[in-house]
Amino acid sequence: MLTETLNELETTKEETFQKHFLPSSTGKMVWILGLVLLACVIFSACTGALPISVSELWQIIAFKLGWIAETGVEEQKSIVFWIIRLPRVCLAVLIGAALGIAGASLQGLFRNPIADATLIGVTSGASLFAVFVIMLNVRYFGMLNELAGAYSISFVAFLGAAFTTLLVYQLSKVTGEGGVTTLLLCGIAINAFVGAMTGLMTYLADDAQLRSITFWNLGSLGGASWTSVMAVAPFVAISLIFMPYLSKALNLLVLGESQAASLGVNMRSLKQKVIILATMGVGASVAVAGTIGFVGLVVPHIIRTLFGPNHRTLIIGSALSGAIVLTLADTLSRTIVAPSELPIGILTAMLGTPFFIYILWEQKRKRL
Amino acid sequence: MIHVRNAGFEVRGRKLLEDVSFSAKCGEFWAIVGANGAGKSTLIKVLSAELGTTSGSVLFHDRELRKYKLKELAKKRAVLSQQNNITLSFTSQEIVLMGRYPFYDADPAQRDLAIVDKCLKKVGIGHLKSRLYPTLSGGEQQRVQLARALAQVWEIENGLLLLDEPTTGMDLFHQYETFQLAKELTRKNLAVIAVIHDLNQALQYADRVLMLKNGCTHAIGPPESVLTEQTIQEAFGLPVQIIQPEMTPYPVIVPNVAPVYHIP
């Protein structure tokens, strides 16, 4: 190093010609993942009980937009596409993006790659609130119309998610510097509590309520309609637009709270923003699709491994690939046991768990 | 540049810091020494505005420290604290670039990246630029953190660098390099305030020494007058001898106790 200091003049001369760059590039990743997502959306829209070919799909869309005057595609296929297939694909994309973003940002906030909305109990909190409202709604709020009902459930689920996240965050801070163990123990406690509450409701519930409670626990996109898409879209859009602005602060948080503060991060406001934005998406998606686990855990892991841990890349990448994963998983869930369908929560947990264990294994191996 | 006037800090009735006053000027290298629990880290936290004083005041560039916004302070001083655990696999370069975050909005300019490179080379880890931080050894990690703090104050005029035990985990050579670097920074008109455990290093490099004992100022002033056999015994409870070997330009502090013989 002494010689380096002596040679400093020479090196500065060289450096003026040498261009500096960062290894992770967001632009390239967005292009790659964007194209993959588009392909997945087209694939998902074409696959199902009534197959639609790509050229038919093109004609259906072009006809609707008035680019072509007439089309040879059957009316039935067009209806299936616009009323059933497209809202479902849109919902999968939105919820996938929401879960991916929430996973990435919560992991950043907790400074812990294991903080997943399902594991730490955020999803449970959201579904508890939502189930509560549904039970009340069936009994007392029958007068709420469909869209207002969907919005109010989304909002309440968001409140539940935000409340639980805050609780877990405070608990994990009180009992230690947010270590993995504390975090998971908090998750266990909250999940157990919610399990007890759900059990209580199951005990009290009638047939119709029982079915909706089961639905919350398994998670499914079966209820997709334009109404549910509209109910979720604004929540997801807000977190999608604003979350990337927090990526620098989340990066600094990696250094620890006090070091982040010395680099100009206001912890209090960052915490509030992240919790609100992350839980908005989770809450809304729980409201329309129930508990879908492991997307928020596995997706950020993959992005981190492929494109590095920088939160700007991570958040955008997790949104895109969360959408990809959920679109594919949903396609699989509705075709694998056709004409019936498998709840998507079962599928993501079944595929996600071994993958997660594999990631843990790899990480351990790499560090040795 | 930073004036501490009768600063005190207490938590639940326990006084961690009491009536500490000093003022560091630009271009000075201050060493804070003292036994474990003497309030050294608390003082660094007070100076970095992480903790507010419960009595007295701290003036930074002639303005109350508490009146600064966090973002403003980030452009005027850097802090290197004791614990630096990072579990996510950022590269060394990305960690050091974080020191430049207060100075750019969305994307780093070429200038920021050039500073990062220079700081990495300064602490002797230019070759570890793209290594993942969690895979580095303790001493190497500490040097990455030092480079990050360095990148933050690199272009600041009359900046302040606060170091809490900067040489933890470093080998002998890099400890020496770190203090040389701190001296070099003071020549660029920065003030450096560091918590130092090795009294010999404090004696050798510091311009001023502040010795704390139980949260109070025990001695303050130039190293030769602060680090005497008497004060060291009072603050640390260990009798020492200060000797001046013929071949070295600095006096050396050695424990003045009977050697422990190994009885077979």
From TrEMBL, chain A:
Q: Where in the cell is it found?
A: Cell membrane
Q: Which parts pass through the membrane?
A: 29-54, 86-106, 118-138, 150-169, 181-205, 226-246, 274-302, 314-336, 342-361
What domain of life is recorded for the organism? Answer: Bacteria
How does the protein associate with the membrane?
Multi-pass membrane protein
Main localization, broad class: membrane
* SUPFAM superfamilies named among the record's database cross-references: ABC transporter involved in vitamin B12 uptake, BtuC
- Which controlled-vocabulary keywords does the entry list? Cell membrane, Membrane, Transmembrane, Transmembrane helix, Transport
**Record keywords: Cell membrane included?**
yes
- InterPro entries attached here? ABC_BtuC-like, ABC_transptr_permease_BtuC
Give the PANTHER family listed for this entry.
ABC TRANSPORTER PERMEASE PROTEIN MJ0876-RELATED, FERRIC ENTEROBACTIN TRANSPORT SYSTEM PERMEASE PROTEIN
Homology family: Belongs to the binding-protein-dependent transport system permease family. FecCD subfamily.
State what protein this is by name: ABC transporter permease
Q: In which organism is this protein found?
A: Dyadobacter endophyticus
UniProtKB/TrEMBL annotation, chain B:
Query: What sequence ranges are listed for the domain ABC transporter?
Result: 2-239
Q: Does the keyword Nucleotide-binding apply?
A: yes
* Function as written in the Swiss-Prot or TrEMBL entry: Part of the ABC transporter complex HmuTUV involved in hemin import. Responsible for energy coupling to the transport system.
Q: Does the keyword Translocase apply?
A: yes
- Protein name (database record): Hemin import ATP-binding protein HmuV
> By its UniProt entry, which Gene3D superfamilies does this protein fall under?
P-loop containing nucleotide triphosphate hydrolases
Recorded hits in SMART domains, A to Z, give: AAA
What organism is recorded for this protein?
Answer: Dyadobacter endophyticus
Classification via SUPFAM superfamilies: P-loop containing nucleoside triphosphate hydrolases
Highest taxon above the source species: Bacteria
PROSITE patterns, A to Z: ABC_TRANSPORTER_1, ABC_TRANSPORTER_2
* UniProt keyword annotations, A-Z: ATP-binding, Nucleotide-binding, Translocase, Transport
Q: Which Pfam families match?
A: ABC_tran
Q: Which GO terms describe its molecular function?
A: ATP binding
